[in-house]
Structure formats: C-alpha cells, structure tokens
Design goal:
Layout (H helix, E strand, L loop, with lengths): L1 H32 L3 H26 L3 H19 L3
Amino acid sequence: MIKDVFILLIGFIALIKGADIFVKGSSDAAKNLKVPSVIIGLTIVALGTSAPELAVSVSAALQGSNEISVSNVVGSNIFSAYVFENI
C-alpha cells in the first residue's frame, strides 16, 4: 500500500514537471520563431494534449477493437464539450 502511494506521488511529480517543461518549451519555441504564443497554444499544445488519445485510438484500431477506438473519440469530445464549455 505504501509502495503504491509512493509510486503515485512520483507519477504526479513527474506529470507536473513534464507539463512545466512542455509549456516552457512551447513558449521558447514561440519566441524563437517570432510567432504569437496564442498560435503555439492553438497548435503545438493542442496536438500535445491530444496525442495520447490519438495513440489509444490508433492502437485499438490496429488491434481490431474498433469499438474502443470510436468510444475514445466520442467520449473525449463529449467530455470536452460539457466540461470545458462551462469554464
């Protein structure tokens, strides 16, 4: 049990650190390319946050689990529509 909590905490720390590195890198890329940061936010960051869903959908489709692939896309869109529209 303590081992599981420790692994969970390490995972959260890695997630937060990775997110910081990703945002800083995106910001630096915008400055270096002399592109407004909003453009980077709408493209690179959006692609980065959608990559795990894309990987799951493609992997499921290649394994013949079309239901999982479609459910992942539909579920993600429904969640985004209901949660982020209210923010």
